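Private note to self, pasted from the team thread so I don't lose it. Backbone tokens:
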């Protein structure tokens, strides 16, 4: 079927191709970055384990499947930014709008694609992610349980061998000899310890890699013999052996065996949405039964409690408080040693009760956390899929507004947006997991924050807003800080009419004359009156007229073919016409600023800075005009002669 019959236009195909190629590239980049960040958490479990390539390949494969739903939103954000940034930078977006196609119409094919990607993300989270999660953590636990390759460091105790701690003072890598060996072995309880000291020795694994053979030379063996059989024996409390050569066999399984999957299959991350919803009822019922059992145990701690119902807790407290048993008088009649025994017994009972309550509290926290973790995973399957669509409506409008392609600005913006998303999402997840927030609020806070931002950017981009016009913000900052703008006058490629040099010379002469009069009447180097600055109106009409005259002359002389004149024109400063008289143009704003002393002092000294700058600018204008006037007068005389010759002819 032809694309036109499906309502697909050439523009849709063009934008889809641009997005598709960039999405594939950015997806692999984002996947790689997330995998490296995730790998950094488990790097200690991989180093020194002697793992084979097939095990490492499985580890990275399952890791990639787990991180795929997280890489999709970031890839969509970055690729949509680059696509519409490139279209805006190359003016193709302007051409699209000039053809009567709105920005939302240009978004249309990508919206369909992003919705499909969101569906793929949900499928991976609901079907692929649980299975890959089980396989990944099964592999990870097996790596943790695997004995490492024997790489005993120098100068520290090494506990990689089960049941032993080995200290080696020095190693000879060329011969494999170990010097200054100290071994602590624990065969049973803490009382069955053995300490072995040796001058030197060697280690090697057996052929089946199930044991480790340790050959020691010139040492001593100290072992405590206080076992169950010799508990009452005083004749043989320990044994000491001096040896010149000793051979010890240690258990050392260097093989790799997968652990049982039942250890990780009960985790919420290893369940699909349907299984989570099914298990939530049983988890809630089990938690309620445990809570009820704990409540009944807590009631049994009361001494001589009446027979009340469960909801009569206040009556129970009042009954215990109103008990007429004279405990103090009974205690006072006891002998001192009985009093001490009673106090110790009471303290022991209280400690036991507190320990029991602490254990039950921790177990209850675990149960409730497990319940909340299941809810978090259920919400996450929807919020993470929805983030694909939200990130598109952030990236595509931002690209259309910023109009910067490549990997520079889009990468910076993408990282900033993703950091905001990650902070809110991770913080919300932790607060919901710990029970400080409701689960629905903690899991949707990132969506609630980014959705208004996406709507705002889409609205501004559709209205051709300059909300991210960098030049506009740059001009505002420069004006606020009083930074100077420089002139950039270059020779025109096409000049239709030469400047009117005689008129321009007259304008420059009048400017110099007005500067002399202004400098005589206005003492710019004096401190102005703060009352007049903040509470009186005072636009400097003379400077405005002088600046207007100067700009007219500069504008006309800018069409000159003379390089010297063009160079001298760039020496004229850009004058701030009112910043030396008052901070703002609005009178009420000046009054408010003047009443606020710290802010008023800042703008007062800022205005003094502008007065000093204006003093230097006027002097620069006079000097530049004196240099440019002779050249302008020469051209004016040449124009006069040329005009007179034409008139005579």
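Design output:
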């Amino acid at each position: 079927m032809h694309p036109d019959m499906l309502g697909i236009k050439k523009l849709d195909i063009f934008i889809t191709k641009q997005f598709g190629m960039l999405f594939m590239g950015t997806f692999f980049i984002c996947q790689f970055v997330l995998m490296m960040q995730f790998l950094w958490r488990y790097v200690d479990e991989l180093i020194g384990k002697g793992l084979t390539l097939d095990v490492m390949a499985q580890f990275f494969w399952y890791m990639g499947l787990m991180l795929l739903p997280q890489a999709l939103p970031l890839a969509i954000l970055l690729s949509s930014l680059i696509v519409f940034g490139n279209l805006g930078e190359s003016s193709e977006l302007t051409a699209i709008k000039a053809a009567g196609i709105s920005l939302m119409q240009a978004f249309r094919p990508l919206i369909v694609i992003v919705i499909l990607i969101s569906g793929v993300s949900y499928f991976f989270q609901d079907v692929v992610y649980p299975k890959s999660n089980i396989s990944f953590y099964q592999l990870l636990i097996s790596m943790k349980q695997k004995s490492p390759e024997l790489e005993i460091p120098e100068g520290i105790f090494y506990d990689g061998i089960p049941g032993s701690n080995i200290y080696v003072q020095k190693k000879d890598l060329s011969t494999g000899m170990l010097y200054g060996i100290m071994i602590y072995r624990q065969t049973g309880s803490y009382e069955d310890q053995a300490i072995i000291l040796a001058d030197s020795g060697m280690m090697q694994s057996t052929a089946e890699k199930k044991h480790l053979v340790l050959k020691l030379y010139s040492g001593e063996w100290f072992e405590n013999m206080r076992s169950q059989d010799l508990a009452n024996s005083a004749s043989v409390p320990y044994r000491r052996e001096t040896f010149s050569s000793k051979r010890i066999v240690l258990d050392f399984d260097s093989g790799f065996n997968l652990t049982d999957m039942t250890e990780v299959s009960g985790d919420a991350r290893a369940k699909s949405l349907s299984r989570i919803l099914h298990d939530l009822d049983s988890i809630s019922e089990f938690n309620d039964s445990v809570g009820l059992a704990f409540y009944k145990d807590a009631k049994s701690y009361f001494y001589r409690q009446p027979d009340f119902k469960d909801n009569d807790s206040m009556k129970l407290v009042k009954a215990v408080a109103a008990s007429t048993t004279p405990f103090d008088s009974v205690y006072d009649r006891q002998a001192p040693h009985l009093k001490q025994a009673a106090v110790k017994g009471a303290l022991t009972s209280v400690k036991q009760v507190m320990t029991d309550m602490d254990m039950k509290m921790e177990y209850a926290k675990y149960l409730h956390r497990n319940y909340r973790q299941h809810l978090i995973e259920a919400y996450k399957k929807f919020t993470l899929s929805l983030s694909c669509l939200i990130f598109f409506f952030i990236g595509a409008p931002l690209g259309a507004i910023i109009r910067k392609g490549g990997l520079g600005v889009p990468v910076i913006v993408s990282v900033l947006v993703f950091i905001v998303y990650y902070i809110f999402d991770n913080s919300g997840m932790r607060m919901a997991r710990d029970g400080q927030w409701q689960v629905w609020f903690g899991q949707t806070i990132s969506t609630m924050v980014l959705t208004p931002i996406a709507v705002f950017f889409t609205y501004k981009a559709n209205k051709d807003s300059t909300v991210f016009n960098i030049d506009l913000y740059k001009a505002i900052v420069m004006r606020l800080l009083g930074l100077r703008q420089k002139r950039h006058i270059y020779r025109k490629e096409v000049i239709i009419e030469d400047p009117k040099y005689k008129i321009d010379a007259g304008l420059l002469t009048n400017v110099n004359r007005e500067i002399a009069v202004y400098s005589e009447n206005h003492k710019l180097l004096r401190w102005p009156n703060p009352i007049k600055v903040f509470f009186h109106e005072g636009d400097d009409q003379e400077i405005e007229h002088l600046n207007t005259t100067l700009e007219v002359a500069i504008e006309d002389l800018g069409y000159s073919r003379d390089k010297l004149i063009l160079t001298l024109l760039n020496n004229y400063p850009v004058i701030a016409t009112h910043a030396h008289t008052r901070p703002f143009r609005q009178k009420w704003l000046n009054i408010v600023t003047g009443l606020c002393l710290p802010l008023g002092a800042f703008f007062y000294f800022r205005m003094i800075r502008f007065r000093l700058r204006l003093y230097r600018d006027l002097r620069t204008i006079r000097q530049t005009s004196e240099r440019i006037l002779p050249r302008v007068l020469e051209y004016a005389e040449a124009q006069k002669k040329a005009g007179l010759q034409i008139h005579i002819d």
